[in-house]
Amino acid sequence: MDCMHKFLICSLLLLATCTSYAEGINARISIKRPGNESKSFQLHEEAGRLVFSEREAPVTITKQEYDENGDKVFKVALTASKTIYFNIGFETETGFETKDCDFYIPGFWYHKNLRSPKEAPSFHTSSSWNFREDRFSSPMVGAYDSASGKALTVFHEIDGHDDALTTAMNGEVILDGKTSLGYLGFDNETGKAKLTFGYPYIETPRRYIRKLSLAEPVWAFAKLGKGETISLVWRIRKEEAKSYGDFVVNSWRYCFDRLGTEPIDPLHSPEEMKAQLSNYFRASYVDKYPLKYNSGISIRCDDCKPYSQVQLGFCGRVLLNAFNAIEYGEETSQPDLVKIGNSIFDSFLEHGFTPAGYFFDELDFKDRFPVADKIAHSIRIQSEAIYATLHYLDYEKSHGRNHPEWEKRIVSLLDNLLTLQKADGSFARKFHDDNSEIDSSGGSTSSATSTLVMGYKYFKDKKYLTAAQRTAEYIESNIIAKSDYFSSTLDANCEDKEAAISAVTATYYLAMVSKKKEMQHYVDLCEKAAYFASSWYYLWDVPFAQGQMLGDLGFKSRGWGNVSVENNHVDVFVFEFPHILSWLRQTTGNEYFMRLHDIIYSSLGQLLPQEGNLCGIGVPGFYPEVVQHTTWDYGKNGKGFYNNIFAPGWTVASLWELYSPDRTQKFLSK
Questions:
Q1: Which CATH number do you get for residue 201?
Q2: Is 264 within the bounds of a domain?
Q3: Which terminus of the chain is more exposed, N or C, with fewer CB under 10 A?
Q4: Can you list the pairs that 518-524 forms with residues at least 24 positions away whose Cβ atoms lie under 8 Å?
């Protein structure tokens, strides 16, 4: 009998006598003998014990349930009378109709994950899922019933910091050592929502192994030696909320309080970080093509040699890094960095614009420059390029250096963007050089807002502010009000962290240039979006096994953000987000945001490559990107390692923004 078949049978056993949450929790245990298929048994309660119908049960299971601070604490302890290999699981009824439910797993599952395709975990593939807990930014699963406004969550109080290597990744697997990881999920096979949880992990009906790749399920078995005891604790919580968004806010705050997350001791000061990262500006510089650039994508981790591909924004962030090199070079008297940065801007002024006046988003110099009808743009990359250029122009002007040709180019480009804006205030996600749409989705609209506000501040032209305000109307109605943050990352079109951060940034910029009631409105929107963005960030440290490089380096995942539903790894994508969290604390008094700021700020420098401590990267300063913290890979290596190809262009730019906390406020306050 295969693992999937066994899982379905166990579910049916549970359903046969399923009771409401108020009456109890249903349970099963699976026992495996090496070399044999496991046997599953339904458990029932007798005098504080969970027992099953085997004449000489090899394990005693005691159970405690009690109320504490509004939670139902559910404890079980297993004591083996002989060595066993086990997997124990539970489910609790919510009482909610699945059709009225949205689900929440921090940093991994939002609503029904219907923005994601069937090749990723979503309701398109199954309405019932179980996942190992290191996929989540907090070890919680929840269901929200929009019909009643009620919700139920299950939180695993994880004991220890262990993980185990396995000889197989699918089917029934006996773990080679201790693990702290259980599983959480939900079951909707009857049309009634149930939350599932247990130990050690299972992943059903499929495992998510790499981008848009689902594989066979896994059922892990932990060893419990004769006379040994293991204790497991979950907290089950009922609540009411006015909306799914409010439910996510309440759940995230609850996780923060339960985990008690604190900052780590930073390994490096901001000055030390910038000194090391600046090596990227030198070592990645390419000057043999019409466009000069810092090579930032499609680079091998082992040698970091420059590549012929240049991406202006998104993963490459060429112009932002060029500006950083100029600013830092002048601050620290390193004229070679200034020369590199200026050469990049000069080359883009001469060769970096398309016939229609947009920036070239992406080029590979193994090929020729594309002809006009083959040129594609994204609103995100165009906005990021304008953002970087306006910072450059403002900096240059403050030093008595003016660039009228650059200003003409940017005005023309901003005016181009205005022609793209739709009646509802949104922008198409991707479009051709002639403005015809490629992807009409409005999910990336937020990326244009801050750029338009900057255009208003720099050029003193209110039409750009008006356009930015129109984007906010779209963002409020279609993204923030619906708690539907999607489509910002360009290599996926799903629920993602970057979309939430983009909405946070957009509303922050508008608040900074508004007054009184209008400002307060944007502050309120910014706070709502900030909760969703925060939910992607880890509030705990996932465990690693010995031999998994990240664990051997002592890596702590707290403060790192999961990327998206489709890209299940952590990274240092923050840019201005921590500064906005700090501003929200000052503006609203919300202490949670400052606590998260401190955790992020202390944590993101952990993997800085430097001489003698390269952290798995070939060259100092090339900060890693695809940090694989769970059993998912981007094509190579898996948990505890990086993919073999990475994009340090954006990681360096993101960290540089983190360590430049007053840059935006100075720009917007002029």
A1: 2.70.98
A2: no
A3: C
A4: 522/472, 523/584, 523/587, 523/588
